[in-house]
Amino acid sequence: MPKSPAATLSLLEKTLPVVFSHHPAALSLAAVVNPDAYLARPPGSGPVVLADPELAALAAYTLPKRRAQWLTGRICAKQATSAYLRKFLPQLPLPDARDIMIANLPSGRPEIAGPFAAVSGIDLSISHSGGYAAALVAAAACGIDIQEDSPTLERICARFCQPQEAQILQRHLPDLQPIPRLNLLWTAKEAARKAVGRERMPGFLELVLRRCEATTGDCTVLVLGQDPSAPQSPRDLPVLTTRFEDLCLSVVLTHGGNAHA
Ligand SMILES: CC(C)(COP(=O)(O)OP(=O)(O)OC[C@H]1O[C@@H](n2cnc3c(N)ncnc32)[C@H](O)[C@@H]1OP(=O)(O)O)[C@@H](O)C(=O)NCCC(=O)NCCS
């Protein structure tokens, strides 16, 4: 029976502390919101989420898909930040969603700006694909990636999957079709690139799948090595991956210092 997005979110929330040794983190996953419907909501019909600079940024996007994914990514980022503050920094007053401003560095990496930038000291990652967006907030550098299955993954597989990595995936996940199997690796590597790429984003082939580890409840951990020449290294990154509908969703929390230190 396929998992719903809500069940996927709850599964990841339960599994994250197990895989990542109780590192503080909060997640959000949402179906894409229609920006025109969102902007046309009558006053008082729901919390106002975007600050004025964010409304201006939304207005600058003209492509409907990008507008919708950008908006939903922002909503998810603010929800994940609020959830994080509620759970891990309860001594702070819970901010209005408009005060949790989400900006992008010149590299494109998202960050929390506005009044909460200084106090939060937390890292943020955003992803969107197909009909969904997702965000992850954590105390250390983190990454999230969501991607719908696409035949393009097979066409470009040499750019991100080496033969030995395909063998590991096939051995560990024999019941998964080739495209979903490749998609798990793609999202795991994208999430890891976002997490470790603050200074320089590594190439897909600079991250190597070392092994898969089963976890309970339909999640798989893909352990990626950051040094392709070393068979094992302390810098190996476990990435928590799962599927729902026709999408893969991967999350990674690094054990490195605070992303904003
Ligand atoms: C940044 C990148 C990882 C985004 O991945 P994607 O699968 O295209 O898109 P996703 O929806 O998963 O992620 C998009 C989000 O990633 C975040 N992002 C962008 N650049 C980032 C970076 N350098 N580090 C971390 N996160 C980044 C942003 O929040 C963005 O959403 P937003 O613009 O709405 O805020 C990817 O586009 C990339 O590798 N870019 C580098 C340039 C590159 O290699 N280009 C060649 C393409 S063939």
TrEMBL record:
Keyword annotations: Enterobactin biosynthesis, Magnesium, Metal-binding, Transferase
Name of this chain's protein: Enterobactin synthase component D
Annotated ranges, domain 4'-phosphopantetheinyl transferase: 142-226
Gene Ontology CC: enterobactin synthetase complex; plasma membrane
Function as written in the Swiss-Prot or TrEMBL entry: Involved in the biosynthesis of the siderophore enterobactin (enterochelin), which is a macrocyclic trimeric lactone of N-(2,3-dihydroxybenzoyl)-serine. The serine trilactone serves as a scaffolding for the three catechol functionalities that provide hexadentate coordination for the tightly ligated iron(2+) atoms.
Positions that bind Mg(2+): D145, I146
Catalytic activity: apo-[aryl-carrier protein] + CoA = holo-[aryl-carrier protein] + adenosine 3',5'-bisphosphate + H(+); apo-[peptidyl-carrier protein] + CoA = holo-[peptidyl-carrier protein] + adenosine 3',5'-bisphosphate + H(+)
A biological-process GO annotation: enterobactin biosynthetic process
Pfam family, one: ACPS
Matching InterPro entries: 4-PPantetheinyl_Trfase_dom, 4-PPantetheinyl_Trfase_dom_sf, Enbac_synth_compD-like
Family (UniProt): Belongs to the P-Pant transferase superfamily. EntD family.
Superkingdom of the source species: Bacteria
Listed GO MF terms: holo-[acyl-carrier-protein] synthase activity; magnesium ion binding
Record bears the keyword Acyltransferase: no
